[in-house]
Amino acid sequence: MIHLTILLIFAAFLFSAGVYGVLARRNAVLVLMSIELMLNAVNVNLVAFAQYLKDLTGQIFALFVIAVAAGEVGIGLAIVILIYRNRETIDVDKIDLLKW
Amino acid sequence: MNGWEQSAVSIAVFLPAAGALVIAFAPSKDDRLLRTLAIVFTGAALAVGIAILFGFDYTSGARQFELNVNWVAAIGIRYHVAVDGISLPLFELTLLLSFLCAVYSAKVIPSPGRTKGFLALVLLLETGMAGTFVAFDLILFFVFWELVLVPMYFLIGVWGSANRAYSALKFFLFTMIGSVFMLLGFIGMYFAAKPHTFDIVTLQHIASTAPFARNVQLLIFAGVFLGFAVKVPMWPLHTWLPDAHTDAPTVGSVLLAGVMLKMGGYGFIRIALPILPNAARAWAPWIGILATIAIVYAAFCCLAQRDLKRLIAYSSVGHMGFVMLGIATLTQVGINAAIFGMVAHGIITGMLFFEVGSLYDRYHTRQIAEIGGGMNLVMPRLGTLFWFTAIASLGLPGLAGFWGEVMALYSSYSPIDHVALFRTLMVFGGIGTILTAAYLLWTVQRVNLGVAPASWKERALPDVTAVEWASWVPLVAGIVVLGLVPGLIFGMTNDAVSGLMKVFGA
Amino acid sequence: MIAYSWLIPALPAVAFFVIFLLGSRLPGRGAPVGIVAVAASLGMSIVVLGQIAAGHGPFESSIQWLQVGGLRLEFGEYIDGLTAVFFVVVCLISLCSQVYSLGYMKGDRRFSSYYAFLSLFTASMLNLVIADNLFQLLVGWELVGICSYLLIGHWWEEKENSDAAIKAFVVTKTGDVPFLFGIFVLTLAAGGVANIPQISNMAASGQLGTGLLTVAALLLFGGAIGKSAQFPLQVWLPDAMAGPTPVSALIHAATMVCAGVYLVGRMYMVFAPSGHALAFVGTIGAITMLIAATMALVQDDIKRVLAYSTVSQLAYMIASLGLGPAGYTPAFFHLFTHAFFKALLFYGAGSVIHAVHTNNMSEMGGLGKRMRTTYWTFAVGTAALIGIPPLAGFWSKDDIIATAFNTHHYAIWIVALITAFLTAVYMTRAFLMTFRGEYRGEGHPHESPAVMLAPMVFLAGLAIVAGFLGAPFIHGAFHYWVAFPGGETERFNWALTILTVAVGLTGIGVGWVLYRDYREVDPLKRLGGLWTLWTRKYFMDDIYNEGIRHPIQYPIAGATASFDRTVIDGAVNGVGLSTRRLSGVLRYIQSGNVQRYAVFLFAGVAILAFVITRL
User: Fold this and answer.
1) Which of C28, C252, C565, C603 is most open to solvent, judged by the fewest CB atoms within 10 Å of its CB?
2) CB-based burial of residue C583 (10 Å sphere; 0-12 exposed, 13-18 middle, 19+ buried)?
3) Cβ neighbours of C594 in A, within 8 Å
4) DSSP H helical segments within C387-409, as ranges?
């Protein structure tokens, strides 16, 4: 049985990698993937705590998150594809029509 | 207590809203049907109003036709409507003017047309205005109060003249800011009252038995003052009015001047004074001073106006100054004068805006210089009516405008306190009446008299039409009858006001 | 009959509504309706006066008009000798004017509305006279004002006419404001009632302090100054000549300007206890009679001569009221006789104007030969105004002058004598310039139609005999009709009377010498500075115009309006604008770069986490 602390540290690394990807990457697909990383970090946490507390709620939550993440990726990628069709780029720096 | 007594007021208030709904679903191509519907629904509301007038017991100052049921039980908001001697004249004025506006619209729908939307908004407006005068719950009052804003915003913004977008936005934001503070005041009252309540009657009872602490009163009064003062409008919060009037369509101006301004004065009488008596006494001299400034200031502004409609808008500021002066004296005579003054101003200025609207429909200008005089030669009937109304507006005895003005001055000779100050204000008010006479007669001279420019004579402008007669004759009759028999209004208001004034120990 | 006196104002009021609403659809375009109504009122007035003369005491009845708080107002009638005399005078002059207008206004395009307003004018004045309540009186008072505004401006196509109308209304309104405050003072002091007999009783019985009465009297007198065109508000009356001449006659003889004198008389119980108020009234009267007479001397417009003469004669009445109770009856006796000969003079002037189509006496002359009836009736009016015995004006004017002497008001007495002299001069001047010498105008003047001459002849008769009603040696009836307690004094003094008449005759002589050979240049022009002063109306019009009206109308009004636009509305727009400016700065935070938002988001989360863990 892996110690809870190790799992939490792993999840924190995973989450930080995701945050870095979201903040630093220009490519929208990579940004989406980074979001997935963050979500999975949360999932790891949920499952770890569920194991630690002997409570299945966390695992069920994790299943929910996976389902929602799947939907999110579906919509997100669709948006990215549409943006690419319209603007021929998926560089998030250039997608700033909403500014001001 | 039977069903009619309980429901009559609500029927009168919501009939126009129902009418608005019906109009919204009626075929928009059938113009005549829409106009007829508007007349029918406002007429029905007026009929209910007249029935209330006959069922009203004038010997008692109490509330009648009362309905008081739970609305939002969780925070104690109730649907509490009724009429008493103070609300009845203004309530009837609302129903009458709205009906006459509907009649007037049978002929004239301002550009860009779209009859359906226009009439639906006018009817919705009527519900809001009428409801304000009968609500006895602060939140209900506030809902009706705000309900008025939206239709009027669209009436000005869509059917207005040149500068309509600016004027509509200014009107909306100005009154909205006022009402936010008013709402804060209401919430303050709710929490200051033990037990918490929004009910105006209960709050008045609290004020006469165990009034709020003085500092609390002063603070809450400041809030509601802003809301009401913007609506009146009191100097220096008046600048939305000339713009709104200048750009509003005729019917909008009539209802704006005729009824909406009265909501502010009514708010002072119904809510601010009786619930916050100590604060009212503390604020009264300032209100009196602002009111008197408004009287003289508005007269000067009128002298300098070149746009006829704007001139009348400014004259409203002055006339409402007399109303506020009466209220500021905190005397029975003063409050009665204020209510009478509001009704009289509603009729007279409503009439003036009707006439200016019709005048614009013919001349296609409101610039006094472009009209160039001689209207009595070009259109003798319209000219005579305008002349008559202007004379009524300057407060000639025997016509409606006189009593509110002279009684306000009398009350300011004998105010509840600050006698020296108010007598000084009375003198300035008196000077204001001279200036008012001067600018109105000067306006008549420039518009009605002299020889008309040849261009107008060739144009063969039509004189007053049948529809215009239909919507104006009741107002003319009202001006004369109220002037000769002022007891018609004072008989309603006097007892109710004296009940209200007990809180001032008078 | 007295109880039905309310019909006297009611009939012309009904006539007004009928004529105004039906207008030219009526037979004779409405004129007969007005004439019949006022004739009926006149008949009733004479009956009422007869009943008063027969000793029926003051009659009062009223109904409640309104009740507001502690204020109770009634609407009713109060009939005593003063009321009855005014009834007769108002109805009689109104009837004459309406008959006269049949000829004078023939073919006028607004004939019907003219008659409607004449009826309303009469009704308003009668309502003012009958009122038993100060507020009811005020209603009549202001309605009289608006009617004279409408009638003075009857020919409003010309701007100067409507200017004169506005001037009349606004100037008198200036006096009405203190009048209104005077009503407030009395009403509040009387405990919320404005009933005139009640207030009079309270004043007489000393329930109201003298100080309060002085204030109230002075304020009320403000109204009288405006309405009766006394100094310093006399400026409107000469301009009011812009109206049709029968209206001028009505305004000057019976309605508008007499209202002020009536007010002082009706409220005399308030004036009498206050020495200061009486002194003020007397002083204003003395000043006005003198300056008005001097200005009458230099006018070229025949109607303006008569206008200033009215101001001057009204000042006699006002001054007489300032003499104390003894001057009460003489004042109204003079008003009574003055009504007849002043209306007569105006009709004469109107007849002349009708014939020569100008108001300027310098373009008249020699009309005596062509207009015999006008000539003789005008002569009677002139003599009556100058005070030649035994014409009406002699009795009444002598009464005032003698009372001034007998009550030891020597200053007023001397001013009154000087004015009597000036009156004789200017009336002689007007008479000679109009009717004697050679005709200086163009065209062929001819006598006016009978419908205009009839009222003139009738009034000439009254101007001869009316004075006997108050003549001392036949114990004239007038002094029983209109009397004030404590006003009985020795009234006839041969020496004084001879002096007064001699002054008048001297004036006629001076006028005769100066104007016997009038051709082109007015001999009074030799006065130089005085001539300028008088023709420029003591510069009072200029002072009011340049000092008050013009600054208010243009610079002050313009400054206020631009203050409103720039400062107040500027502040409003400034709030809006600064909100937009601020958001203009803040919006740069919204870069549109999602990653930057996310940086802020995570930074916020980190800070929150830090804060929370530290707590």
Assistant:
1) C603
2) exposed
3) 92, 95
4) 392-406
Whether C contacts B, i.e. 3 or more CB pairs less than 8 A apart, is yes
Is any Cβ of chain A less than 8 angstroms from the Cβ of C205?
no
Give how far C173 is from chain B: nearest CA, Å. Answer: 6
Q: Is the peptide bond before B236 cis (omega within 30 degrees of 0)?
A: yes
H-helix segments, B268-417: 273-275, 277-304, 308-328, 332-363, 368-371, 375-378, 380-393, 401-413
- Three-point CA angle C8, C9, C11, nearest 5°: 75
Structure letter (DSSP) for residue B372: -
Sign of CA dihedral C347, C352, C355, C360: negative
Residue in B with minimal Cα distance to C550 = B303
Contacts of A19 in chain C (CB under 8 A): 602
Q: With CB atoms and an 8 Å threshold, state whether C592 touches A22.
A: no
- β-partners of residue C193 are C72
Three-class SS of C34-92: HHHHHHHHHHHHHHHHHHHHCCCCCEEEEEEEEEECCEEEEEEEEECHHHHHHHHHHHH
Q: How far apart are CA C298 and CA B209, in angstroms?
A: 74
Interface membership of C594 toward A (CB under 8 Å)? yes
Task: Give the relative orientation of helices B277-304 and B308-328 as an angle to the nearest 10 degrees.
Answer: 150
Kindly tell me if the per-residue pLDDT of C27 is higher than 90. Answer: no
Nearest to B501 by CA among B198, B202, B262, B207: B207
* C neighbour chains, 3+ CB pairs within 8 Å: A, B
Task: Please tell me if residue A28 touches chain C, with a CB cutoff of 8 Å.
Answer: no
What is d(CA C545, CA B267) in angstroms, rounded to the nearest whole number?
43
**Backbone torsions φ then ψ of B419, nearest 5 degrees:** -60, -45
Between the alpha carbon of residue C397 and those of residues B226, C25, C330, C332, the distances in Å are 64, 46, 8, 11
Select from C601, C593, C611 the least CA-distant residue to A38. C601
Interface membership of C593 toward A (CB under 8 Å) = yes
For an interface test with B, give the residue of C16, C19, C63, C68 to mutate (most B CBs within 10 A).
C68
Taking the C-alpha atoms of residue B440 and residue B433, their distance in angstroms, rounded to an integer, is: 11
Question: To probe the interface with C, which of B403, B441, B488, B497 has the most C CB atoms within 10 Å?
Answer: B441
Which residues on chain C are in Cβ contact (under 8 Å) with A99?
A: 590-593
Q: For residues B17 and C430, what is the distance between their CA atoms, to the nearest angstrom?
A: 74
DSSP β-bridge partners for residue C72: C67, C193
Shortest Cα–Cα distance, B317 to chain C (Å): 13
Contact C214, C274 (CB under 8 A): yes
% chain A with pLDDT above 70: 96
Nearest to A96 among C588, C591, C599 (CB): C591
**Per-residue tokens: C562:** 């631009």
pLDDT band of residue A100 (cuts 50, 70, 90) is low
Residue C547 has pLDDT above 80, yes or no: yes
In this predicted model, what pLDDT tens digit does every residue of C143-190 receive, in sequence order?
A: 999 999 999 988 888 888 888 999 999 999 999 999 999 999 999 988
Q: Do C590 and A99 touch (CB under 8 A)?
A: yes
Nearest to B64 by CA among B86, B79, B82, B91: B82
| Interface predicted TM-score (ipTM) of this complex, two decimals | 0.91
Span C93-131, pLDDT tens digits: 999 999 988 888 888 888 888 899 999 999 999 999 998
Lowest mean pLDDT among B161-175, B375-389, C525-539, C560-574: C525-539
Contact between C525 and C440 under an 8 Å Cβ cutoff? The reply is no
pTM comes to: 0.88
Task: Tell whether B332 is within 8 A of chain C (Cβ).
Answer: yes
Say how many CB pairs under 8 Å bridge A and C: 30
Low-confidence ranges of chain B (pLDDT < 50): none
